[in-house]
Structure to design on (1193 residues):
């Protein structure tokens, strides 16, 4: 009996102890749930856009060329790639910088590298023009150094002299990561991202470079990061970035053709909408769906980027451009087959003694500015606005100027208070609809000779003292306030005329020993020769900028030595193309059309 | 314990040992006493037994249920946590796979950045905000190129066991519970790992979710279950105690009432409450008690009537007997003048009248005893003259029977507080019987005394008593052989009266006899009236009697005691008695038979 009792008591105590002990265990066995997710098949972008390695060059010239492209690619590994070209004994000379500070020194070779072979080493001299600093965020910033010349040596690896497979090493290397403009062209993709202007009415392009080595899948992330990091320094005063604390959470990803961008930003509907437009235009090579998330909460879905772009054009260009020229003091239309022709949108009374003219469409209205010759052959500005044809003109007060450039209208300005720019006697002036001229201080050291305004109306290209400058404008009230001018490095010297040839390109007239017309990117890195056979200095240049998708290519017209030409192909503008003039009687020498320009 | 490390204190060891031994003895003695006490309580109290058994049984039952419930709760909590974490892990792994799917090679510049960002994002984005969940990402296959990341930044390696690592690196989703310290206090973590497939191979994602909340909830639930269980068990015990008390109390009352009834308080009854089983018990008990009482009263009345009848008859017979006696005396006195035959009849008449008278006297004496009228008239008396007087008085009878009466009487007076008349009557009766059944062999009367008692034995060597007759001889009108007519003047009441006399003194009257060995009667009386007797100064079985089971030797004495040379000796004694104790001398340690 007693034993039974004892057993019972022990059992009870054991059970209560068991209850106390049956909690969550301290440690357990590994429990296998099953196989993990399988890898998704997907296209790989391969290893394109990777610059050649040290040993892949056949000649010294090629080696130098490869050395100048070695830094191309993702900035994080740039030092590593360049280091591979450098003799191990000299690698310490290349001082590394941190990730965000890595900048490639983009140079344009002014002449072929001077390679002088020696008994042991080969000496290389590079004569360069500094184009800029390519920073990790794809911005080609103004150059920080101006060394016109780099020198280094080439030598074979120790103990392997004479072996053709051993390749070469760079000794005494420059303490910068050099990148030639050719390599920039070859291994980078030029991309345009858009920022809203200060009053958020218009998108302003900003040019960036994306290494081709970056896989396609990461391009969206890169673009979004550029947008969140803010605009290039020179545009700072003209545009507004995203809200300060906006940042991309990890990478943008694609699921079933839909891109998801997860952001950390204030949840504001207007800002999101604007960001959507920014993204749609900054990712022009993307169509399909884009989903914007804020902290992983879906906020906006753009169902079709293509349609989104179409519904929100950047530039309000509704018609194809019309060509005009000045013929015998009067503005006349120029006629070319397949191009629209219309009457001059100015009444005949005002259309006389014209030297040059600038017309612009602003909605239904026409903005017209005419440089006319007044008494004493001094030039005045005559400005009129209104529906076609413009009847009322105001002449600028004062006694006039000795010489005035072709006036340009800023397309960004408030339609009720149009603003134009004109260069008169070496100074830049702005004018309004009542032809009131006010000087604009640019802060350039030399007299201004030409001015051109971009399609977005927030960027100016200015020639001062034969050099090219770009300036960002921030419209304040009725006026314009220019930011700091940025000088661009060009191959052309002695510049005479400039106009915008695209969103991020300029058309430029100058001299490369002989007069030439070049197309150039807005940062000066890319130059394309358009014409070098003009034979005379270009005094007047007007272009209709390419703005995809409306106008895929830019067109230009210029005047040199009193003769007008048109581009693509370059040919002389004949008197026959000038409309509304009578054929002069025989014997009378017909005049030439001058100062051609576009109305758009 | 046995040896001390300090050799220069030799006395300390035994002293300490002694103290320890004392302590141990004290403790063991106390526990033994306690155990004995508990055992006694267990045996005596039905309530204790019922309550204990209820407690034990309900503890087992409730404990079992509590274990099941607590286990179930813990399992549910764990399963929920596992499901939650699994969902998070799956979505996290899918997210990470999407993020890392943008990279083709582990060397790509932004991969590490993406890993950092992904881990931070999966951990809740803000490294400052600690939910306790730790997300870790390792790449065992790319140990050189990809660094493991943890958010928040803590060292999770001790918590991710090698087995789990191996399993997850092998492409399986697996989990494990581990306990460890991640910065703060020791916590249980559910470690869940999943492989994340990428284009450049596989990385592993781990979620370490603290189980603090689950643990606390489980502990709370367990505490509640245990507390409820304990309360339930106590309640059941209390209930059992109450119910048992309900049953036991009437039973105890019944027991007490029965005790009182048996003590003679025949009018004791139980209280009947209600109509339940206990009430039935009480009613039945009362019924039984009433019946018993009635029966006892009836029997008492009958006995009283019988005694009264005897007494009355004796009294009523005495008057005619007196008349008859007077006439018979007259006739007997004139018998010489009658014819011999008539004279013989007169003698017979006279003798039978003597017996008749004697019988009546004895009957009256017995009636007095039965009626409780007998009173002891005790006084300090020297018994030696009493013995001598009885022997003298019966000398004539002995002579007629050819029997010698031997006396073994001390020379010194044997004083006891007795009623000399009754003692003399007892002795006369015993000696008369011995002479009568002595078959012409000597009768021995022995007188002995000690501090508390006196004893007289009467030994004869006649036919003796058969086994079992030692008690019967004291019955009224008993005879050994019913067919044998009563020859001598005995009335058949002598030994009964003697027994009553001995009882009246608070003494014993005992008989011993064996066929062919004669008989011995022993009268033992307290030296002071009213004292309780414990032993008798004289032996009931005579020393010359043969042992009934053959014994060591007929007439021998089994002595256990110190032998001649100091050894313990067991063997026949010297004076024929079975003695256990120091043999020989006057010591009286004896084993009676």
């Amino acid at each position: 009996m007693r034993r039974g009792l004892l057993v019972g008591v022990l059992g009870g105590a054991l059970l209560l102890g068991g209850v106390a002990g049956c909690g969550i265990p301290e440690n357990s066995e590994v429990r296998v749930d099953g196989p993990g997710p399988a890898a998704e098949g997907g296209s790989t972008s391969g290893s394109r856009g990777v610059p050649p390695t040290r040993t892949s060059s056949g000649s010294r010239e090629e080696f130098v060329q490869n050395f100048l492209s070695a830094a191309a690619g993702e900035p994080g590994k740039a030092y590593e790639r360049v280091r591979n070209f450098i003799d191990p004994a000299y690698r310490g000379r290349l001082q590394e910088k941190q990730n965000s500070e890595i900048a490639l020194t983009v140079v344009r070779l002014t002449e072929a590298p001077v390679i002088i072979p020696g008994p042991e080493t080969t000496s290389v001299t590079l004569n360069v023009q500094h184009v800029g600093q390519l920073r990790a965020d794809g911005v080609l910033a103004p150059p920080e150094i101006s060394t016109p010349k780099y020198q280094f040596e080439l030598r074979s690896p120790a103990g392997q002299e004479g072996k053709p497979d051993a390749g070469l090493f760079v000794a005494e290397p420059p303490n910068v990561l050099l990148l030639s403009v050719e390599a920039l062209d070859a291994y980078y993709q030029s991309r345009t991202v858009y920022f809203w202007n200060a009053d958020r009415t218009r998108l302003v392009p900003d040019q960036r470079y994306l290494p081709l080595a970056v896989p396609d899948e990461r391009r969206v992330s890169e673009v979004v990061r550029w947008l969140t990091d803010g605009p290039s320094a020179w545009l700072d005063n003209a545009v507004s970035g995203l809200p300060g604390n906006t940042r991309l959470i990890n990478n943008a990803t694609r699921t079933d053709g839909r891109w998801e961008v997860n952001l950390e930003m204030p949840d504001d509907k207007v800002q999101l909408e604007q960001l959507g437009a920014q993204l749609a235009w900054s990712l022009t090579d993307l169509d399909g769906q884009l989903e914007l998330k804020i902290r992983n909460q879906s906020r906006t879905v753009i169902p079709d980027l293509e349609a989104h772009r179409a519904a929100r054009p950047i530039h309000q260009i509704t018609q194809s451009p019309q060509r005009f020229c000045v013929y015998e003091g009067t503005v006349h239309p120029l006629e070319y087959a397949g191009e629209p022709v219309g009457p001059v949108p100015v009444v005949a009374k005002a259309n006389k003694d014209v030297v040059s003219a600038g017309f612009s469409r602003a909605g239904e209205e026409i903005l017209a500015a005419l440089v006319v010759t007044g008494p004493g052959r001094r030039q005045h500005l005559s400005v009129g606005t209104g529906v076609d044809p413009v009847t009322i003109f105001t002449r600028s007060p004062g006694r006039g100027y000795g010489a005035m450039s072709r006036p340009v209208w800023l397309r960004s300005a408030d339609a009720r208070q149009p603003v134009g720019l004109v260069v008169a006697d070496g100074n830049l002036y702005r004018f309004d609809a009542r032809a009131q001229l006010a000087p604009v201080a640019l802060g350039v050291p030399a007299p201004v000779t030409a001015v051109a305004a971009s399609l977005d109306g927030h960027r100016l290209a200015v020639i001062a003292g034969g050099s090219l400058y770009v300036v960002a404008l921030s419209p304040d009230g009725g006026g314009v306030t220019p930011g700091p001018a940025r000088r661009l490095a060009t191959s052309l010297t002695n510049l005479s005329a400039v106009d915008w040839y695209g969103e991020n390109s300029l058309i430029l007239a100058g001299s490369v020993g002989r007069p030439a017309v070049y197309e150039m990117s807005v940062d000066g890195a890319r130059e394309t020769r358009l014409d070098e056979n003009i034979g005379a200095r270009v005094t007047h240049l007007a272009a209709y900028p390419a703005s995809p998708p409306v106008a895929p290519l830019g067109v230009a017209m210029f005047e040199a030595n009193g003769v007008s030409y048109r581009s693509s192909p370059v040919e002389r503008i004949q008197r026959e193309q000038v409309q509304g003039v009578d054929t002069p009687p025989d014997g009378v020498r017909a005049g030439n059309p001058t100062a051609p320009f576009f109305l758009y | 314990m046995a040896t001390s490390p300090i050799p220069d204190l030799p006395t300390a060891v035994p002293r300490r040992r002694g103290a320890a031994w004392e302590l141990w003895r004290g403790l063991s003695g106390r526990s033994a006493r306690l155990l004995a006490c508990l055992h006694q309580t267990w045996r005596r109290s039905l309530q204790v037994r019922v309550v204990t058994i209820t407690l034990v049984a309900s503890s087992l039952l409730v404990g079992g249920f509590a274990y099941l419930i607590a286990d179930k709760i813990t399992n549910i909590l764990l399963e929920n946590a596992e499901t939650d974490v699994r969902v998070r892990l799956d979505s996290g792994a899918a997210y990470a796979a999407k993020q890392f799917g943008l990279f083709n090679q582990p060397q790509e510049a932004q991969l590490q950045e993406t890993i950092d960002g992904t881990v931070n994002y999966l951990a809740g984005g803000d490294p400052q905000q600690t939910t306790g969940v730790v997300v870790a990402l390792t790449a065992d296959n790319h140990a050189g190129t990809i660094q493991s990341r943890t958010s928040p930044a803590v060292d999770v390696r001790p918590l991710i066991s090698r087995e789990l690592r191996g399993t997850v690196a092998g492409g399986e989703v697996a989990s494990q519970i581990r306990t460890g310290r991640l910065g703060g206090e020791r916590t249980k973590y559910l470690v869940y790992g999943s492989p994340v497939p990428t284009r450049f191979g596989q990385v592993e994602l781990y979620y370490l979710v603290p189980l603090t909340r689950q643990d606390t909830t489980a502990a709370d639930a367990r505490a509640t279950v245990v507390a409820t269980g304990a309360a339930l068990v106590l309640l059941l015990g209390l209930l059992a105690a109450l119910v048992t008390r309900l049953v036991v109390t009437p039973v105890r009352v019944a027991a007490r009432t029965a005790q009182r009834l048996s003590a003679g308080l025949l009018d004791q009854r139980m209280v009947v409450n209600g109509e339940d089983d206990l009430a039935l018990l009480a009613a039945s008990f009362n019924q039984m008690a009433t019946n018993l009482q009635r029966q006892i009263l009836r029997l008492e009345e009958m006995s009283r009537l019988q005694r009264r009848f005897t007494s009355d008859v004796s009294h009523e017979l005495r008057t005619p007997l007196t008349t008859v006696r007077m006439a018979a005396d007259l006739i007997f006195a004139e018998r010489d003048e009658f014819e011999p035959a008539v004279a013989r009849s007169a003698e017979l008449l006279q003798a039978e009248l003597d017996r008749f008278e004697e019988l009546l006297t004895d009957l009256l004496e017995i009636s007095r005893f039965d009626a409780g009228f007998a009173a002891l008239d005790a006084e300090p008396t020297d018994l030696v003259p009493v013995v001598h007087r009885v022997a003298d008085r019966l000398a004539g009878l002995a002579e007629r029977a050819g029997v010698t009466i031997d006396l073994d009487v001390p020379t010194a007076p044997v004083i006891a507080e007795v009623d000399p008349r009754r003692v003399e009557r007892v002795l006369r009766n015993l000696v008369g019987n011995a002479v009568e059944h002595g078959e012409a062999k000597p009768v021995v009367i022995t007188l002995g005394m000690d501090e508390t008692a006196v004893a007289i034995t009467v030994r004869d060597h006649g036919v003796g008593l058969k086994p079992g007759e030692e008690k019967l001889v004291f019955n009224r009108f008993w005879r050994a052989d019913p067919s044998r007519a009563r020859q001598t003047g005995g009335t058949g009441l002598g030994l009964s009266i003697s027994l009553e006399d001995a009882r009246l003194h608070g003494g014993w009257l005992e008989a011993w006899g064996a066929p062919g060995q004669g008989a011995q009667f022993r009268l033992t009386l307290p030296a002071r009236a009213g004292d309780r007797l414990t032993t008798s100064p004289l032996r009931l079985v005579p020393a010359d009697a043969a042992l009934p089971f053959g014994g060591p030797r007929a007439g021998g004495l089994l002595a256990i005691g110190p032998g001649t040379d100091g050894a313990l000796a067991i063997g026949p004694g010297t004076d024929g008695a079975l003695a256990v104790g120091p043999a020989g001398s006057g010591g009286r340690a004896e084993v009676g038979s």
Notes: The mean pLDDT of chain B is 82. The longest strand of chain B covers residues 186-198.
